[in-house]
## 1
Amino acid sequence: GNNDDKELPIYESSVIPGWFSEISPMWPGEAHSLKVEKMLFQGKSDYQDVMVFQSSTYGKVLVLDGVIQLTERDECAYQEMITHLPLCSILNPKKVLVIGGGDGGVLREVSRHSSVERIDICEIDKMVVDVSKEFFPHIAVGYEDPRVTLNIGDGVAFLKAVPEETYDAIIVDSSDPIGPAQELFEKPFFESVAKALRPGGVVCTQAESIWLHMQIIEDIVANCRQVFKGSVNYAWTTVPTYPSGVIGFMLCSTEGPHVDFKHPVNPIDATCCHNKEKQPLKFYNSEIHSAAFCLPSFAKRVIDSK
Ligand code: SAM
């Protein structure tokens, strides 16, 4: 019983063969793991490593550069919130742009809005689109909407070429800021977003976790306050398979008709569930919309001070 002589053994079965562990410098010292039933796809695109596996409890899982992008079981929480938080906050959205989001899930959600006339998407990596069409038909179904136009390319370059005041809403469904999505978190990108939006137009961008990335969030909020002269808000939701189990969104509007994101003016709760062609919403409703803007005190202090 003398621990001074030899070190206690590390609990070795915590490194489990047959499990996928999400290890990244973006969340040092922790790694969420899922049991792998079957490896379905492994490829290398021009931009990233792409992997799909069947997990034992979350359905199929899409992984880019070792980071979980979605699972069939909890993708609804992310896709519904990143889409309906902005689109339910304005009346009659007509032109919508999606940056990233190659899996098609955000498109699927945008297409629930009957006021929308045009949906453009710019995804950098065609392999993500192809893999989603092959392995995630309930997500890639978004591409079947005739209002959708797919552009393969860098979202930063795409936005620079967009004429001013084109879109009612822009949704940035990006991966983390290490890798091809890095520029999507920087100020010049937000400036292009603001230019491409009509007055009183809205943007919603993936904005990391309050448990892990308060520093990144602070920077994003500070940039957005300089760029967006309407309103600037942070919202969050739970996604069990994202690091720390939560993910946030920046919701901003440009100068013009005031947008009060906390009080949705364009609810879809009633209509969507009576549309026979579509699955009902699994996660989003108007109550959760307003609740998403309530922040824990530690995050509220930092975000309000920016
Ligand atoms: N929809 C996913 C979910 O439910 O969690 C979120 C991740 S989505 C797959 C992120 C996408 O952003 C990836 O397909 C990635 O290729 C794309 N992306 C990264 N950088 C980009 C850029 N600069 N321009 C356009 N798309 C980019």
## 2
Amino acid sequence: QVNHFRNEKHIHVYGTDMPDPIESFDQLFKSYQIDKNYMENLTNMGFKVPTPVQMQAITAILHAKVMVCAPTGSGKTLAFGLPILHKLGEHKTGGFRALILAPTRELAKQIQSEIVQVSKGSSLKVRYLLSSKTVENRKKWMNAGYFIVGKFNMVITTPKKFVYVLKKFRSELSLKSVEWLVVDESDKLYEDGDMGFRQQLGNIYKACQSSALRTLLFSATFSKEVELWCQLNLDNLLRIYIGNINA
Ligand code: ADP
Ligand code: MG
């Protein structure tokens, strides 16, 4: 029984119509037609079974808006990376369709590296947004203007950097194409930054105009502020907590 399985894995869920968790990656292939290529990459990465957060979050993300709280090291990157890659399907021009926000460059790069690994062999292009302090890098920024518009399917960056890009490339940059907005480590984003997470995220969220926008929030610890933001901004939200709720 599903609830028994969830209890066993310390998966706590809230929201209506939460889809069943998967017990194996194989089920994604059988029930969700995930590309075989992803299955092969997972095997090559040494991932034999999904972690609890992956079991529940992957199917939830394939269906709805999701807020996920699961400990550090529990495999959250793949929990959002895999279903988004699957939903993006093939490479398309006309703007990037997934925007992943993480609090630091290091975290953004880690996410990028894992997603590049799992998407090996697919036509999708995943990009980490570069910093722009030097002249050389500023040139890259110009290219950044270009890759934002056309070349890439998924962009991973920090909210601070992205707010800057939004200002700088306002005229060229349309976020109409963005269908997926992921806020990783959303609890930490709330804590730091001169401008404040709420304002940065608000700006970015407003700029994403697609009616098909799906917002996903991930964090390691429960945050009242993040939950409040979700309640105010997202309806029909599914919430998933892994482990001890009070941890
Ligand atoms: P979190 O974001 O929850 O802190 P990560 O997504 O960074 O965790 O994953 C932590 C580590 O676990 C990474 O090294 C990742 O490659 C590995 N990992 C993720 N999913 C699995 C899996 N299903 N089986 C084995 N290892 C995994
Ligand atoms: Mg993480």
